[in-house]
Design brief:
Blueprint (H helix, E strand, L loop, with lengths): L2 H24 L4 H8 L3 H13 L3 E3 L5 E3 L1 H23 L4 H14 L2 H15 L2
Antiparallel strand pairs: 1-2
Helix pairs in contact: 1-2, 1-4, 2-3, 4-5
Length: 129
Amino acid sequence: MTNSKHRSTESIEDYLETILKLTNKLGQVRSIDIANELHYSKPSVSIAMKNLRSKNYITVNDNGYIHLTESGKELADKTLERHTLLSGWLISIGVSEEVAYEDACKIEHDLSEETYEAIKKYFSSVSHN
């Protein structure tokens, strides 16, 4: 995967994860909420929302509220699950919470599905012992 394609996928996952978290927290999400959460400019978020809409990950109603489509929610759930497991693991081995969340965000996009599933299986077996 080229770097620009990788960054594009990473950006999509980050936006979808943010939309999911904000929806859970606020109930309804608008572009300004995303801009504030990620500390991005409103024009950058607007361009990203057009991109997500064109890929059928989100819908935007007449009032500007953003909703995840089924495929958008699926990818957001997957990304959030990875982030939660990885940040929890980093915290458990002594990484500070702030750094763990930042590093988990970097790792979650680069980890292969095989490695992630092995880590998940390992933690599942450890937590049952």
